[in-house]
């Protein structure tokens, strides 16, 4: 079965190394490890790369829309590529998880993440997600949260996720390495 991995991010001119872009930064590291080339697809309004891993076809996708409007491009990508929402894994930052922690989940609450909300509204609230912990801001005030997620990702966190993409840990977390499985249970962990 094909899978589409979607890394949420804000396009230029917003800071490319922001915590909010961690989903796409992780995908970029995976693409680099797999020696993939990115192509701009107007039909999807985003960047696409293809890979073959463990007899699976992986499609990596980074929307060209702003983070909070990601649903439009993600829906277009699924339509153009002929994939269903259950084949999608959304990678995004999460302020409710500590740094270096992650959780996979099918659907659930968007937790106030407007990019996730946009995808849920455009496709299906049951979409599979990899929530990447970036730590909590000082308060839940919208301005404080915005400043937190638009601030630069700390280098150690970025390097640990880049290493996870290089050494196969990311594919294990996503359940895409090793024998095929239909197990879509929620899991949690911490980067090794």
Short description:
Helices cover 31% and strands 24% of the residues.
Task: Describe the fold and architecture.
The chain is α/β, with parallel strands linked by helices and 192 residues long. The chain has one domain (3-174): Rossmann fold (3-Layer(aba) Sandwich). It has helices spanning 22-33, 70-81, 114-122, 142-150, 155-167, 169-173, and strands spanning 3-7, 39-41, 46-53, 56-63, 88-94, 101-106, 128-133, 187-190. Helix 1 (22-33) runs parallel beside helix 5 (155-167) and helix 2 (70-81) runs parallel beside helix 3 (114-122).
- How many extended strands? 8
String of helices and strands: EHEEEHEEHEHHHE
Q: What integer is the average pLDDT?
A: 91
Distance between the termini: 28 Å
Whole-angstrom Rg:
15 Å
Main sheet specs: 8 strands, mixed
How many DSSP H or I helices? Answer: 6
Q: What is the CATH architecture descriptor?
A: 3-Layer(aba) Sandwich
The name of the CATH topology is Rossmann fold
Strand-pairing-aware structural class = alpha/beta
State the low-pLDDT regions, or none.
none
**What is the quaternary state of this protein?**
single chain
Keywords: Hydrolase, RNA-binding, tRNA-binding
Protein name: Pth protein
GO molecular function: peptidyl-tRNA hydrolase activity; tRNA binding
InterPro entries: Pept_tRNA_hydro, Pept_tRNA_hydro_sf
Give me the secondary-structure topology.
Layout: E1 3-7, H1 22-33, E2 39-41, E3 46-53, E4 56-63, H2 70-81, E5 88-94, E6 101-106, H3 114-122, E7 128-133, H4 142-150, H5 155-167, H6 169-173, E8 187-190
Parallel strand pairs: 1-4, 1-5, 5-7
Antiparallel strand pairs: 2-3, 3-4, 6-7, 6-8
Helix pairs in contact: 1-5, 2-3
Protein name: Pth protein
Keywords: Hydrolase, RNA-binding, tRNA-binding
InterPro entries: Pept_tRNA_hydro, Pept_tRNA_hydro_sf
